[in-house]
Amino acid sequence: PSYLNFMLDSGGTANNPSGRCSFELPCNGHDLCYSDCSKTQAKCDSALKTAMYASCIACYKASTDPDRMTHYLRCTKWADDYYWAVSNYGRDPFVNRQTLNCECACP
User: Fold this and answer.
1) What pTM does this model have?
2) Tens digit of pLDDT for each residue in 96-105?
3) 1, 22, 100, 101: which has the highest count of C-beta atoms within 10 A?
């Protein structure tokens, strides 16, 4: 989403802000969750944060880089920032997805 562009490191992308550890799967899952009629925005946003933390753990757990803890903490900071952004600015996208996928389109 465009509101995340201001947070990107140089060399990063929306799904990989640090250029080291991808949030693509958690972000894709979040997009799908917003389309799930049985979910609330809060549930989707919380699941996103949990999945991004899991990505950070997977990315740096086996690393032999001596700075891996610094990178891990930076990764979780990105996860916290993304969570903050979707929690505070995700209402319209959530409502749009719910409206598109969940309201009756009867003739």
Assistant:
1) 0.80
2) 999 888 875 5
3) 22
